[in-house]
Structures are given as structure tokens and as C-alpha cells.
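User: Before I run my own analysis I want an independent prediction to cross-check against. Here's the chain; please return only the C-alpha cells and, at the end, one sentence I can use as a sanity check.
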Amino acid sequence: MYRRKLEIALSSVQAESGSQDGALDALHETLHRKAEEILKRLEAVQARYDAESGHGNNAAGQARWEAQIAAWLRDPIVAP
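Assistant: C-alpha cells:
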């Protein structure tokens, strides 16, 4: 899900500069910043999952997460 979220976010990245090297540097910086933002969100969601599902050992918590993840897989944009 977060791979798809990352693909969507990175597909629209643009960078401009007065030179090709400048544009490449700006693009590199922008890509890394966006990727880092999304990966930090993934880490936060993983921590929340672990707490709420007891690392998958709490059946009720696990079921809630499975339903939430299914919704996010249908529409990755709505995932946190």
C-alpha cells in the first residue's frame, strides 16, 4: 500500500533550475524528501498497528486492522 502511495506521490515530482545539474540536484532533494515523509508515516502506522493488535496476537484488534488495510489498498491515497 505504501509502495503505491510512494509511486503516486513521486510520479508528480518536478524540479526546475537554470542548469541541468541544478535541476537534477533539486529533483534528487525533492524525491528524497517526499520518500522520507511517506516512510515516516509508514513507521507511525506500523507502531500503531503493533500497539492496537498486540503485534497481531489480539484477534479483535487484528480484524479491525485487516478491514482498515483492505480499505487503504482499494484507495492508497486515503492511507495516513
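Sanity check: The chain has one domain: 2-78.
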